Structures are given as C-alpha cells and as structure tokens.
Amino acid sequence: MRLGIRVSGVVEDSSDHVKKIAFGERQSQSIILAGFALIPEGAAEAKESSRAGARRKVLEELGLDVAPGALLGVDWTATRTGCSEGVVLVFDGGRLTPGQICSIRLQAEDLRRYAFVDVGSVGELLVPVLARRVQACARARERGRPL
C-alpha cells in the first residue's frame, strides 16, 4: 500500500488584527454532516512536489495563485473510505491583500461559499482533527517554526 501525501495551504485575511483563516463550505451533503468547512487540501499528484501540490490546491479551490511559504505542520491521516492513510503537509499561504480576497473564485462543483473565520472559532466549523491541525499551524506561524 502506498502512503499518500496530502498537501494543504492556509491563507489568512490581512484586513484586521484578528487572525482569520479562509474556509470553504463543501457542496456535498455527506461532507457537511461531518463538518462543513475545510482548508484547501488534496493529494499531491505523481511527480509533483508537495509545495507545488499545495499551490495547485489553493488555485483549484480558491482561484488564487499563491506561492506556498514555510511548512507549518506535518500530520498523519488514518485510512478512510476512498483514501489511504497518509501524511499531510500544511504550508503557509500567507496573508491575502484586499485585492486577492476580491479575486477569490471558488471551485463551483466542490465549494458553495467561503468565509474568513477567527482561528479561535475553528472548532465550531471543522471536524476535531482538522480544527486541531489548523490551530496548531496558526501557533506554528506565530512562533516562526513548524510543528
């Protein structure tokens, strides 16, 4: 069995002093029942670097071409329906300018809407494992070192 490499990019609103992370709401009702929000994430393709994969996922899901910054965290995901176990690499997608925020274009077949949410409130939107991952990566960004 091949261990999957999943990549993710966390982007942040720069319009105020409160840290707010961008989340998309999935179209699929089954995913909404499990926790309706997500950060841009997906599998790295064959022969694609993890950094290139994170850039591609942010571009596909939010329509933003953002060069990934520092690695914020490394996590493991268990086997689940349709996915093998894997390693998740979360990269810093940076703070978005007002112009970038205005240019967000959602992946219509997958995402219904997006919002910027205070990091302290992510537990209300995300499944617990993803909430912990996002909060840990926000702390890593503040400290300037990955987890």
Q: What is the C-alpha radius of gyration, as a whole number of Å?
A: 14 Å
> What is the CATH topology?
Nucleoside Triphosphate Pyrophosphohydrolase
Q: Name the CATH superfamily assignment.
A: Nucleoside Triphosphate Pyrophosphohydrolase
Multimerization status: single chain
Structure, described:
The protein is α+β, with helices and mostly antiparallel strands and 147 residues long. The chain has one domain: Alpha-Beta Complex (Nucleoside Triphosphate Pyrophosphohydrolase), CATH 3.90.79. Helices cover 27% and strands 33% of the residues. Strands 4-1-6-5 form a 4-stranded mixed β-sheet, sandwiched between helices. About 6% of the residues have low confidence.
Salient structural properties:
147 residues, single chain, Nucleoside Triphosphate Pyrophosphohydrolase, four-stranded mixed sheet, alpha+beta, 7 strands
Task: Tell me the layout of helices and strands.
Layout: E1 4-13, E2 20-26, H1 29-34, E3 37-38, E4 41-43, H2 50-62, E5 71-77, E6 86-96, H3 98-102, E7 111-118, H4 128-143
Parallel strand pairs: 1-6
Antiparallel strand pairs: 1-4, 2-3, 2-7, 5-6
Write a concise synopsis of the structure shown.
This protein is an alpha+beta fold.
